[in-house]
Design a protein that fits this description.
25% strand, Immunoglobulin-like, 41% helix
Length: 209
């Protein structure tokens, strides 16, 4: 009877020892895996840069926020907005992305309007530069001529006559002054030409009036 009890106690003791050994072995395995994982992380090389196509991005790379440009015309007109020599749009620009730095904004001509002067702005990252192009309204001039003659053509005779008269070329001067009187008799130049014809001594001129 006592022998059986001793056997039972021995078996229970062996089982308990086996459980303890298994538990300790498991803890050692977990610790070993954790230690290996920590060592792997510690031994991993640092990431210096990532290459994608022709662009290389480093962890230290600072990505700049673009500057913005807003342009309006006053009064609102379909004038072309030209930035650094490149036409961008008409009427205006609404928050166009632009690189930081100096830029020149110009405007196209419009019929009846004088274009605004060129403006230079300094764009700043993350900020909006505002440009207003003030067009000036131009007036109109109406010119009426008397008769069917072109006064531009015939008034030139008077001016040529004066030039030739100063040069002493009497024949040429007399010809053009006479042509002015004949072809545009009601013009101011014709009256001046007639006065010169009367007041000038034409001695030596080969052509008599």
């Amino acid at each position: 009877m006592e022998i059986r009890k001793a056997s039972v106690y021995a078996i229970a003791l062996v089982a308990t020892l086996a459980i303890l050994v298994g538990t300790l072995s498991g803890l050692d395995a977990v610790g070993l895996r954790q230690a290996k994982g920590t060592a792997s992380l510690a031994e991993s090389p640092p990431i210096h840069a990532i290459e994608h196509g022709s662009v290389t991005v480093s962890p230290d790379t600072h990505i700049e926020t673009p500057a913005l440009l807003r342009v309006t015309t006053n009064p609102p007109v379909p004038g072309k907005i030209i930035v650094d020599g490149v036409a961008r749009d008409e009427w205006g620009l609404t928050w166009m992305k632009i690189a930081s730095g100096d830029h020149t904004v110009t405007f196209s001509d419009l019929s009846g309007l004088a274009p605004p002067a060129a403006q230079t702005i300094t764009a700043v990252s993350g900020q909006t530069s505002i440009v207003v192009g003030n067009y000036a309204i131009q007036g109109f001039l109406r010119v009426l001529t008397e008769g069917a003659l072109d006064p531009t053509i015939y008034c030139i005779h008077y001016h040529l006559g004066v030039v030739y008269l100063k040069q002493g070329r009497l024949d040429a001067a007399r010809h053009h002054l006479g042509a002015q009187v004949e072809r545009a008799p009601r013009s101011q130049e014709a009256r001046l030409a007639a006065a010169l014809l009367e007041a000038t001594d034409w001695t030596g001129a080969s052509v008599a009036r």
